[in-house]
Write a structure and sequence with these properties.
Layout lengths: L1 H32 L5 E10 L5 E12 L3 E3 L1 H10 L3 H21 L6 E5 L2 H6 L2 H12 L6 E6 L7 H13 L3 E7 L6 H6 L4 E4 L1 H5 L10 H12 L3 E4 L5 H9 L4 E2 L10 H10 L4
Parallel strand pairs: 2-4, 4-5, 5-6, 6-7, 7-8, 8-9
Antiparallel strand pairs: 1-2, 1-9, 2-3
Helix pairs in contact: 3-5
The structure holds ligand C2E and calcium ion (3 copies).
Length: about 280
C-alpha cells in the first residue's frame, strides 16, 4: 500500500540521513580540528640495522576527537583529501614535526632526522618547496634533519615537474624517501630518474617473512635488491619478529622500523627513549 511504501521510503531516507549527518558532522569536526588543536603527532624510531641505534623517526598524525577518542589516520586522511583539508592538515604536520625536532635538539637530545608523510595532492597543488622553506625558516630546523616520504603514485603525475620539485627539495638538503615501495604503480625507468635517497619496503612484503618458507621471501628479496642496485638506502617497515629482523640483516637492509623495536610513541615517551640513549 501507499502508506507502507512511504513508510519504507522514510525509513530508508532516515537511515541515509543518519549516515550522511554522521559523515557531515565528522567532516565539520575535521575542518576545525587543526584550529582547535586536536591533531597530535606520534613518533616511531627508525633503527640502523648494523648498529641497533636510533637514526631517525617518522612523524605520524593522530586526531584526538573531542567525543570519539583517538581517530587513526587511515580513517581521517582519506576524508581530509576528499574535503580539501589535506593542505592545511599537511602543513600543520610539517611545521609541528619541524618545531618538535628543533625543540628536542635545543634541549640537547641527540639530533635525528624527522620524516614527514606527504600526500600526493599536497605535492600537486600546494607550493611544497615554499611551504618547506617557510617551515624550516620559522622553526629554525636545519634542512638536513628533515625527510619527506612520498608514495609511488607521485610518479603518475607530470614527471618533469615532479623531478624538478624533488630536485629543488634535495638541493635544499632535504632527504626524499619513496614510501610503501612495491605496492603502487611504478615504472622502473621513472624510478631511476627520480632524485630520491631511500626506498621504504612496504610492510606487506615484510609481513610475508615468517622464516619458514623461502618462497615467501622472494618478493622482499627482489624489492630489496632492486633498491640496492639503484644505489638507494633501503628501509623495511612493519618489522615485528625476530625472523624478519634476521632475514633483513642477511639482505643488508639499511634501516628498519616496526613494533619489534617500538610502536609510534607520544611526544613525552619518545623524548624519554631518545634521552635514554639505549639501543633498540
Ligand atoms: P605509513 O606512512 O606507511 O606509516 C606506517 C604505518 O604502519 C603507521 O600506521 C604505523 O603506526 C604502522 N606500523 C609501524 N610499524 C608497524 C608494525 O610493526 N606493524 C604494524 N602492523 N604496523 C606498523 P598509522 O600511524 O596508522 O598510519 C597509517 C598511514 O596513514 C601511514 O602509513 C600514512 O600513509 C598515513 N599517515 C600518517 N600520518 C600522516 C601524515 O601526517 N600525513 C599524511 N599525508 N599521511 C599520514
Ligand atoms: Ca610513511
Ligand atoms: Ca609506509
Ligand atoms: Ca603503508
Amino acid at each position: 500500500s501507499h502508506a507502507k511504501e512511504s513508510g519504507r521510503n522514510r525509513c530508508r531516507f532516515y537511515t541515509d540521513d543518519m549516515d550522511n549527518s554522521g559523515r557531515i558532522e565528522m567532516e565539520n569536526a575535521l575542518r576545525k580540528a587543526v584550529d582547535r588543536g586536536e591533531l597530535i603527532l606520534h613518533y616511531q624510531p627508525k633503527v640502523d640495522l648494523a648498529t641497533g641505534k636510533m637514526v631517525g623517526m617518522e612523524a605520524l598524525v593522530r586526531w584526538e576527537h573531542p567525543t570519539k577518542g583517538q581517530i587513526p589516520p587511515y580513517v581521517f586522511i582519506p576524508l581530509a583529501e576528499e574535503i580539501g583539508m589535506i593542505g592545511p592538515i599537511g602543513e600543520w604536520v610539517l611545521r609541528e614535526a619541524c618545531r618538535q625536532n628543533k625543540q628536542w635538539q635545543d634541549q640537547g637530545l641527540p639530533a635525528l632526522c624527522v620524516a614527514v608523510n606527504l600526500s600526493v595532492s599536497q605535492f600537486q597543488y600546494g607550493n611544497i618547496v615554499e611551504q618547506v622553506k617557510a617551515a624550516l625558516a620559522d622553526t629554525g630546523l636545519d634542512a638536513e634533519w628533515l625527510e619527506l616520504e612520498i608514495t609511488e603514485s607521485i610518479i603518475i603525475q607530470d614527471t618533469e615537474k615532479v623531478i624538478s620539485t624533488l630536485r629543488d627539495l634535495q638541493m635544499m638538503g632535504i632527504r626524499i624517501a619513496i614510501d610503501d615501495f612495491g605496492t603502487g604503480y611504478s615504472s622502473l625507468s621513472y624510478l631511476k630518474k627520480l632524485p630520491i635517497d631511500s626506498l621504504k619496503i612496504d610492510r606487506s612484503f615484510v609481513k610475508d617473512i615468517t622464516g619458514e618458507l623461502e618462497e615467501e621471501e622472494t618478493i622482499a628479496k627482489a624489492v630489496i635488491s632492486l633498491a640496492q642496485s639503484l644505489k638507494l638506502r633501503v628501509v623495511a617497515e612493519g618489522v615485528e619478529t625476530e625472523a624478519q629482523l634476521h632475514f633483513l640483516m642477511c639482505q643488508n637492509c639499511d634501516m628498519m622500523q616496526g613494533y619489534y623495536f617500538s610502536r609510534p610513541l607520544p611526544v613525552e615517551e619518545f623524548a624519554q627513549l631518545l634521552a635514554s640513549g639505549r639501543d633498540l
